[in-house]
Amino acid sequence: MFKAATIALSLGLGALLITPPLLAQSPPAPHPQGHQPGQQPSHQPGHHMHGHHPAEGATGTPTLPGQDAFGAIAEVVRLLEADAETDWSRVDLERLRQHLIDMNEVVLRSEVKASQVPGGLAMDITGSPRTARAIRAMVAPHAVELDRMSEWSARTAPIPNGLRLTVAARAAEDTKTVARIRGLGFIGLLVQGGHHGPHHLAMAKGEALPGHRH
After folding, report:
1. Tens of pLDDT along 146-200?
2. What whole-number distance in Å separates Cα of residue 204 and Cα of residue 112?
3. CA–CA dist 59, 176 (Å, integer)
């Protein structure tokens, strides 16, 4: 009998030693739906927590055209299509495209040598045969626009492979305007005036532009 009791006691102790590891291997109780360990339960089931909106903005569309001339033409086309009076039989977008090509040649590929003259600046703008054609087509009419401004005068003269643009203050003693002309230089003077946009639209409409060779 004593031997039987000893065997029973041994079996009981063995069960106690084996049971805890077995219990540790049991899967944890499932969490309520939508609630993960370490998170506080949502107060309103089915609603995302504040600040977590993964779907917002995920289906946006790019707005940049990727190329400046493309964007300029696209803008003009939108204006033409929005105008009920557009005469589509006269629209000439190729004319505008060629002008934008000239702008690219003049802005990016021309060479400019500037020198100070009394009251302002003289700029020799030259380039390859293709760039020289663009210089003559674009700078000469722009000088006409500059000359219409009250604070300075502008003129051009042909030179080999391009044009010479001279801009001077109308009043030689106007030192502030003289300094402004010299500070702007060729590219700064080229962007003066608000005629570029209207000219582009007029070109696309097939309208005549005095002084322009396009």
Report:
1. 999 999 999 999 999 999 999 999 998 999 999 999 999 999 999 998 788 898 9
2. 30
3. 52
Question: Within its chain, how far is the Cα of 151 from the centroid?
Answer: 33
| pLDDT at res. 58 | 58
For the chain, counts of helices (H) and of strands (E): 6, 4
pLDDT band at 86 (very low <50, low <70, confident <90, very high): very high
Closest CA to 170 of 120, 109, 121: 120
In contact, 169 and 181? CB cutoff 8 Å: yes
CA 31 to chain centroid: 50
| Tens digit of each residue's pLDDT (9 = 90 or more) over 45-64 | 444 444 444 444 557 889 88
Rounded Cα distance between 181 and 200, Å, is: 25
Distance CA 24, CA 102 (A): 79
Residues 60-83, buried b or exposed e (16+ Cβ, 10 A)? eeeeeeeeeeeebbeebeeebeee
CA angle 144, 131, 154 (to 5 degrees): 20
| pLDDT band with cut points at 50, 70 and 90 for residue 211 | low
Q: How many CA atoms lie within 13 A of 98 on its CB side?
A: 13
Nearest CA among 67, 106, 66, 69 for reference residue 204 = 69
Query: Two tokens at 12?
Result: 């009981």
